[in-house]
Amino acid sequence: MRKTCLLLALFVVGVLFQAPAFAASSSPKAGWPAHVRLLTGPNGGQWFVLGERMAEVLGKGMLPTTSRMGGGMANIASINSSAGDMGFSLACFLGASLSGEEEYKSINLDNTVLMANIYPQVLYFLLPRDFAEQHNIQSVKDLLQLRMPLRFASLKPGTASEFILNLLFKYGYNTSFDKLREQGWITSFNNYAETADSFVAGEIDCFAYTAGTTVPLILLMEQHTDVVILPVEEDVLKHLEKKFKTGTYVIEPGKYKSVTQPIQTLGDWTCILVRKNLPKDFVYEVNKILWENRQYLSGSVEDFGMLSPQTALPAGLEAHPGSVAFWKSLGK
């Protein structure tokens, strides 16, 4: 067994079981669902971990709540078809659906709407330091020019990571996974923990995915191997911001051991989406419970503490009336 496998597993399990589940404190009101179906993310990721604790909080203060694994794009489809009530995603999915690009017109938002932006989402390109130095890779552009059997890994199709990488490659660098495979790249898709384990074991040359601003998994990986985080070129970031309403996030020195100077990369927002046809008072109450329990929730994922009335409802994106009412009540 690889030396880090048990450590990564213990990390995930330890976070998941910090507190027991609670019984629901109330019965459904008129028009409310009998229970809440919360859609999270791949096993081992921040959405997965945070979703477990959110289900606990909503179950204690509102209604019985179940959480199940999903992904940024898959969650939209499930919510839109009423196979889920709420779930994590990225704001860029909403921006893509409004971009006018033919390939994103299939993102159906007829019954899906924003509940709230939660915390910034950051795109990471991680390389082993010795590999980056050997091939003189100093940016994502340098990486994408390599013609060799580079072992590249990310998260499974249907996840936010897979979507945003496709968007970045096509509209930022005029390339694609197919073109990169023609350059000799070997691509694989898995979950967070197993991919991180393979990275530390030296079986992967690049691990690219989106996560929050403080990622325990990266901190853990840095304990076992030297890591380089690549910047995304400024012209690429500006082009994507104009077209898809994404942003720029700067990873500051000290955030991770490997970061000794500011690193610009693609930024977005982790958000919670809900069914449009959920009652206004139900969505208001969900916002209220999560806001009142933000300190407890940030104990599982630190970034949840960044939830704020100033950023919860971004300009230009439709939000559920229950969310609008709640955040206005806080002076938003």
Short description:
The chain is an alpha/beta fold and 332 residues long.
Describe this structure in words.
Helices cover 39% and strands 20% of the residues. It is α/β, with parallel strands linked by helices and 332 residues long. It folds into two domains: 5-118 and 270-329, 3-Layer(aba) Sandwich (D-Maltodextrin-Binding Protein, domain 2); 122-268, Periplasmic binding protein-like II (D-Maltodextrin-Binding Protein, domain 2, 3-Layer(aba) Sandwich). The longest helix has 16 residues, at 46-61. The chain is globular and about 65 Å long.
Record the SSE blueprint.
Blueprint: H1 5-16, E1 36-39, H2 46-61, E2 65-68, H3 72-80, E3 86-90, H4 91-97, E4 112-128, H5 129-134, H6 140-144, E5 151-155, H7 160-173, H8 177-182, E6 186-190, H9 192-200, E7 206-211, H10 216-222, E8 227-229, H11 234-244, E9 247-251, E10 263-275, H12 280-292, H13 294-297, H14 321-329
Parallel strand pairs: 1-2, 1-3, 5-6, 5-7
Antiparallel strand pairs: 3-10, 4-7, 4-8, 4-10, 9-10
List keywords for this structure.
disordered N terminus; about 325 residues; single chain; alpha/beta; D-Maltodextrin-Binding Protein, domain 2
In the CATH hierarchy, the third-tier topology of the largest domain is known as D-Maltodextrin-Binding Protein, domain 2
The sequence of SSEs as H and E is HEHEHEHEHHEHHEHEHEHEEHHH
CATH class of the largest domain: Alpha Beta
CATH superfamily of the largest domain: Periplasmic binding protein-like II
Provide the low-confidence segments as ranges. 2-25
